[in-house]
Design a protein that fits this description.
Elements: H1 3-12, E1 32-36, H2 43-59, E2 63-67, H3 74-81, E3 89-94, H4 95-99, H5 101-104, E4 115-124, E5 126-130, H6 139-148, E6 154-157, H7 163-175, E7 180-183, H8 187-196, E8 201-204, H9 208-212, E9 217-222, E10 250-256, H10 261-275, H11 278-286, E11 289-290, H12 296-317
Parallel strand pairs: 1-2, 1-3, 6-7, 6-8
Antiparallel strand pairs: 3-10, 4-10, 4-11, 5-8, 5-9
Helix pairs in contact: 1-10, 2-10
Length: 320
């Protein structure tokens, strides 16, 4: 498609609602599969549903969220990596299933080669939260407790290779205590285990509603400064923790490798225009994201940098 025509059509995507423009870019008149590689109720799932609705309205196509969970997000990610590169199968990726999981198991895809970056929903805050029965109210007290009670502490995560897995290992390493990793098939059952008292701790944005309800006690936030929804909770960096941890949490949209550049450009424009919608941005902020419109190249560079940094950290921690 000539660049002049593409530029004209891309500018039209800035409109709040469009009448089936996607067909003009070679999209078929059929639904787009929006793959969430984690179970319903996970933060990834919540973000997927917000952005699927927004994209559908802008593209004039039905965008259907499919949950394809398993292996720390690798099952759904592999499905997209192997799909036809026509823009009709998309992945709502988390940092974990592109920068952590591929280092830990044979996931069946190369995140830097087999997936095409499109857009970012933004960096994500996270909460380090514990069951209220644990006698700690700060990271300093948690670290001291872990040192006094060798091998007692455990932490739940959304699975092997999830961001919460690596962050729990990093916290234990930095604090000089042992903590047992307890993986679950998604962040929803993981946080429920901490609420029930079966596990002690979780590092995940999904802890937010439980903290608001008093079911979990927050010790710190991770992200760029304090989480605006929890201004009273100090950032881990304020407590001199997590200063050198690799890779921020983020959520991004990806297509199969080999997807035509003009299709990527259309999806990027529609996604970024959606982020400018106050209703969409507010919904993402409720899930702990800071909406961030970026280019496909910028997202690709972020994935590559995080992938390398996380790999080096996993080798240092001897996590395999």
């Amino acid at each position: 498609m000539p660049l002049s025509r593409r530029a004209l059509l891309l500018s039209a995507l800035a409109a709040p609602a469009l009448a089936r423009p996607a067909r003009a870019f070679g999209f078929a008149d059929r639904p787009i599969r929006y793959i969430c590689p984690f179970p319903p109720g996970a933060t990834n799932d919540n973000v997927s549903r917000v952005m699927a609705r927004a994209l559908g309205a802008r593209l004039g196509l039905q965008v259907i969220v499919e949950n394809r969970a398993g292996a720390g997000g690798a099952v759904g990610t592999r499905l997209v990596a192997e799909a036809k590169p026509d823009g009709h199968t998309l992945l709502n990726a988390s940092a974990g299933n592109l920068t952590i999981a591929p280092h830990l198991s044979a996931v069946g895809y190369d995140p830097l080669r087999d997936l095409a970056p499109i857009a970012s929903a933004g960096e994500a805050y996270s909460l380090i939260a514990v069951n209220p029965s644990l006698p700690v109210t700060s990271l300093e007290e948690l670290i001291a407790y872990g040192r006094r009670n060798a091998g007692v502490l455990n932490y739940a995560s959304a699975g092997i290779g999830a961001a919460g897995h690596l962050r729990g290992a990093l916290l234990a390493d930095e604090g000089g205590f042992e903590a047992v990793h307890v993986p679950f098939p998604g962040s929803a059952p993981a946080v429920n285990s901490v609420v029930a008292g079966d596990c002690h701790m979780i590092i995940d944005p999904i802890a937010a509603p439980h903290v608001r309800a008093g079911r979990l006690r927050p010790l710190a936030t991770l992200g760029n400064g304090r989480w605006p929804d929890f201004p009273e909770v100090p950032n881990a960096n304020e407590q001199r923790v997590a200063l050198g941890w690799p890779g921020a949490g983020w959520f991004g949209l990806f297509a199969p490798g080999g997807t035509p550049p003009e299709v990527i450009a259309v999806l990027n424009a529609a996604f970024n225009a959606s982020l400018a919608d106050p209703a969409v941005a507010d919904a993402l902020r409720r899930f702990g994201l800071q909406p961030e419109p970026i280019t496909p190249d910028e997202l690709g560079r972020r994935v590559a940098a995080d992938h390398a940094a996380v790999g080096a950290t996993l080798r240092r921690l001897r996590i395999s």
